[in-house]
Amino acid sequence: MHYYGLNLAIFPYFRKNIINTNLNTMEIFQNTPGSAMLPFVMRELVELVMKKKVLLLEDALHYIYSTQLYKSLLDENTKLWYSSTLSLYEALEKEKAEQRKVQNDNSKILLFKMFCIENYREAKKKSTEEILLLFSTHGVFDFLNDNFEMLHTQDTEYILDTITTYINKKR
Hints:
Elements: E1 2-3, E2 6-7, H1 12-31, H2 33-53, H3 57-65, H4 68-74, H5 85-124, H6 128-138, H7 140-146, H8 148-151, H9 156-170
Antiparallel strand pairs: 1-2
């Protein structure tokens, strides 16, 4: 038996260890092909992100490693590493767009909650601390979050009446 030109018959110790090492490596790659493919897939994806987003290597790595897509690439069951680099990039951009939308929505909801606190405080002639305690005690922040889509398009009087009715029902 030869290994890279060496006659392993005269080196029984090396023959045993080299063959066992190769078999173990082959078993690992056969059982987890994603582990073998992931570095190559990631290299291409990182290069594409660097090019399309004009990012430095470290920034591109953070851009990818902080996503659910990367976690899915690590999952052997998804077999995402078989996808093309372009389709992985498109999935990455879709995920990032959804994250931006959620952040934007959270910002809108936060602004709406501040609007409600200030207007309720002014209408009830109470301190901000009293209104915060009232809203926290009666779950008004969750109510505003759950009903944001309907309430934020209404006029101030309707919103304040709705909050008052909600609080009274919670008492």
